[in-house]
Amino acid sequence: MVAGFVAAATNFVLTYVDTGRLDFFGAAVQFALVIVIGVALVTYWNYMEQRADAE
Length: 55
Prior knowledge:
The chain is an all-alpha fold. Helix content is about 90%, strand content about 0%. The two termini are about 30 Å apart.
């Protein structure tokens, strides 16, 4: 997740350097995707851990 946040922030800065404009919408979409994927992974890991403990 940290790598996703760093990549999104880097892309935000590089977009600003290339175009001279701040792309808040693009950065928000990238951060949202990182959060959604991170939540899905944590939920899956917790489910698998509970399932392993039940056995």
